[in-house]
From TrEMBL:
Pfam families listed in its UniProt record: QcrA_N (PF19297), Rieske (PF00355)
PROSITE patterns per UniProt: RIESKE
Cellular compartment(s): Cell membrane
UniProt name for this protein: Cytochrome bc1 complex Rieske iron-sulfur subunit
Lineage: Bacteria, Bacillati, Actinomycetota, Actinomycetes, Micrococcales
Species annotation: Sediminivirga luteola
Amino acid sequence: MSSKEHTVTSDELDVNGHTNPGLPEHKPRLTDTYPEIERRFERQVAGWFVLSMLGTVLFIVSFIAIEPGESYDLMRLSNTLLGLGATLALLGIGVGAIVWAKNLMNDHEVTESRHDIHGSEEDRAIAVEIIKQAKEESGIARRPLIRNTLIAALALAPLPAVIVFRELGPLPGDKLFNTLWDQGVRLAIDTGGIPENPRLLRAEDVTIGSVVHVIPENIHDGDHALDEKAKAAVLLMKIDPDELNEDPERADWSYDGIVAYSKICTHVGCPVALYEHQTHHLLCPCHQSTFDVTDHCKVIFGPAKRPLPQLPITVDSEGYLVAQSDFPDPVGPTFWEINTR
């Protein structure tokens, strides 16, 4: 017991009548005691901020220098470097800020009384004083190495987002109306990648209930084959013709119950590939938009607003399935106002 008696005031009692123990005794850190350790942590913080800058530069260089559409290997390399660059850019700032706060900023605990919030001159003066105090406690004014590297890292960090959004480019206009599908283009089975010798599809090979992923046989004709494949991807299904509810204007777009629809969801562009044979519903796995294959793939559930565009098909003289034309409607998500033809 202390030789001095202490009278507990009402301010030191909580609502339950217990004595307020007060703040624990402050324990100095190594950085508070040894200047050389303080400088070491300062260099560590600056190093993390520099790492963030390098990550941002890696992202930008990878985005500009590597064309992912040329091959799957380049696409994999591009995604890896972009992910690594973005990770380092954000991780460097985050870890640097944590190391700075835990080892260099003032860690004294304080208590402040609550008071009514109002905009008096006195309150504004107090707010300014708090900001000045935070500036002093963080040490940002007297640690130019940390301050400068942090400013540089924060200045570079938004650039990847700016570049990525800028790369989205202008609105597509009529580009989504144009794919490699055209009159007489034969349907080939999609076996993955860009096939050297596409396997063509005969109408007699498609049985009721089957689902086939198809691409145009002339997939090599595009300057950017993967981009063209992404736009032209199609799901082909065969249904009992009596179950099809076809508009008279589109009655000749199918052949013997075989129908073909764009594989790209009209919500945000996910691949629609889940077919329920009993109900003849197509489901998008991303946001559960559901399309009725028997009724021109009209939306029956989910956030999609447009039916999947239908590819008009028929057969040629050799029995191969062929397109009658390109998609009459634009493929892909409706991020913008689209006027159908």
